[in-house]
Amino acid sequence: MIQYNKILIVGCGLIGGSLALAFRSHGVVKEIVGVDLDTEGLNKALSLGVIDAAYSRVEETVSDVDLIILAVPVQQTIRQLEILSKLPIKKGCIITDVSSTKSDICKYARTHMPKDISFVGGHPMAGSEKSGITAASPRLFENAAYILTPDPDCDPAAVDKVRKTFEQIRAHVLVMDPVQHDQIVAAVSHVPHVVAALLVDQVADLGQANPLYSRLAAGGFRDVTRIASGSPVMWRDIILTNREPVLYLLKDWIKRIEDIVNWINEADPKEIESFFARTRDWRDALPAKAKGAATHYYEFTIDVEDKPGIIGNVATILGQHEINLRNIGILENREEVNGQLLLSFSSFRDQEEAMRLLLGHGYKVYVRE
Ligand SMILES: NC(=O)c1ccc[n+]([C@@H]2O[C@H](COP(=O)([O-])OP(=O)(O)OC[C@H]3O[C@@H](n4cnc5c(N)ncnc54)[C@H](O)[C@@H]3O)[C@@H](O)[C@H]2O)c1
Ligand SMILES: O=C(O)C(=O)C[C@]1(C(=O)O)C=C[C@@H](O)C=C1
């Protein structure tokens, strides 16, 4: 079992905060210190107990940490590596990052970082369109792919330690070359983001003249554009550090759009149906439970007496404190047996606050594994 004395998280947002929570719940670390430019978010991370101490700059805390996680937007990750390369870092300390693109960062680390510092590039394939510490979850990485892109010259012991660290929080670690990583994620993550944003842009333009467009934007449109709500800064950096693969795929899209335009123009039922059939078949064959925050619920159960009005009582307690219940389910409802309610929330913060309130009202609370 891996256990670090002290971990530094630079960027205590969605991913940094989720890693901190996961490390705590799996005994990976004794003490976590956090650095963030955003004082409000940093103080929230401290008050929620996600980190033990907060600093505004890495210089103030770096000297005695055993693992540094860079969880900031991609271009800031390179800036942080530049800062760290000039600081007195503890011997044996490992640096890793979580950035969505890997080639530029790994190239920078290989050419600029002192040789006695082990940098192991990383990228969890789990996330959300939400940002910030309040969206963080200790279970975000469970069963998710976690890609590592170590340099061939990196100390194998450091790579192994990082691998074991992420396996301990129940992620599935894959080791990959950074260039191959960037080509694949361009297709499965970056171009889909551009396309989702284009769909929104088109409907937004049409909606300027007619408000019915946004009123009628229902399930299908919302499903396919959820990711367009992601952080513009994060996505700007991702696209700018993965230009070649993204451009290659977007040019390929132009050809594909021309094909479908021709089939529709020619009213060609065979081509149109076969296009929808082969894309449906491929989509349906994807592993059913590929993990990501979109499918992640922040939930717990409580014991309740089997009597009328109990659901209303729970909903009122939460409603009075402006906590949004995402879903409520009855797990057991037999006569003379207490029931259980399963409560789901959209954020870790809502889940924590709801647990605190319901405990205060005498309910027995169970967090589901
Ligand atoms: N959101 C996702 O789905 C997802 C998934 C996997 C990887 N990533 C990668 O993780 C990284 C962080 O993304 P996130 O979703 O956690 O974003 P986030 O906005 O939730 O968190 C980023 C945090 O970094 C802080 N920050 C920015 N610049 C900083 C600097 N120079 N010094 C200190 N703090 C700084 C911000 O204030 C913020 O709190 C990005 O590189 C992103 O590409 C994101
Ligand atoms: O689920 C989402 O909302 C995400 O955007 C997560 C997602 C993805 O595209 O799958 C986004 C960027 C990351 O680099 C990794 C994961």
Commentary on this structure:
By secondary structure, this protein is an alpha/beta fold. It is 46% helix and 17% strand. The strands form three sheets. It has a six-stranded parallel beta sheet with strand order 3-2-1-4-5-6, with helices on both faces. A four-stranded antiparallel beta sheet has the order 11-12-10-13, covered by helices on one side. A three-stranded mixed beta sheet has the order 7-8-9, covered by helices on one side. It folds into three domains: 4-177, Rossmann fold, CATH 3.40.50.720; 180-284, 6-phosphogluconate dehydrogenase C-terminal like domain (6-phosphogluconate dehydrogenase C-terminal fold, Orthogonal Bundle); 297-367, VC0802-like (2-Layer Sandwich). The radius of gyration is 23 Å and the shape is globular. The two termini are 20 Å apart. α5 links the parallel β8 and β9 (172-175).
Give the arrangement of secondary structure elements.
Layout: E1 4-10, H1 14-25, E2 29-35, H2 39-47, E3 53-55, E4 67-70, H3 74-84, E5 94-97, H4 103-112, E6 118-120, E7 122-124, E8 145-148, H5 156-168, E9 172-175, H6 178-209, H7 212-215, H8 219-225, H9 232-240, H10 243-265, H11 269-284, E10 298-304, H12 310-320, E11 325-332, E12 339-345, H13 348-360, E13 365-367
Parallel strand pairs: 1-2, 1-4, 2-3, 4-5, 5-6, 8-9
Antiparallel strand pairs: 7-8, 10-12, 10-13, 11-12
This protein binds nicotinamide-adenine-dinucleotide and prephenic acid (PRE).
Pathway: Amino-acid biosynthesis; L-tyrosine biosynthesis; (4-hydroxyphenyl)pyruvate from prephenate (NAD(+) route): step 1/1
Family: Belongs to the prephenate/arogenate dehydrogenase family.
GO molecular function, one term: prephenate dehydrogenase (NAD+) activity
